[in-house]
Write a structure and sequence with these properties.
The protein has 63 residues and is mainly α. The chain has a domain of 39 residues. It is 90% helix and 0% strand. The termini are far apart.
Length: 63
C-alpha cells in the first residue's frame, strides 16, 4: 500500500521536466516556421528596397 502512494509522486516530477522540454521544443519549432514563412513572403519586397537604396547611393558619389 505504501509503495503505491510513493511511486506516482516520484514519476510525476520527471514527467514535468520532460513536458517542459517538449513544450520549449514545440515553441522553438513554431517560431522557426513562422520566421521562414515571413522571410519567404517578405524577401522579394526587402530585396527591392535594398536595390532602390543601392541605386540611389550609386549616383550620390559623383561629386
Amino acid at each position: 500500500m505504501y509503495i503505491d502512494l510513493y511511486v506516482p509522486s516520484v514519476e510525476t516530477e520527471d514527467q514535468y521536466e520532460g513536458q517542459g522540454m517538449v513544450e520549449y521544443g514545440l515553441i522553438l519549432a513554431l517560431v522557426s516556421v513562422v520566421a521562414i514563412v515571413a522571410l519567404l513572403l517578405l524577401g522579394p519586397a526587402i530585396a527591392d528596397i535594398f536595390d532602390d537604396v543601392t541605386d540611389e547611393l550609386g549616383g550620390a558619389g559623383g561629386g
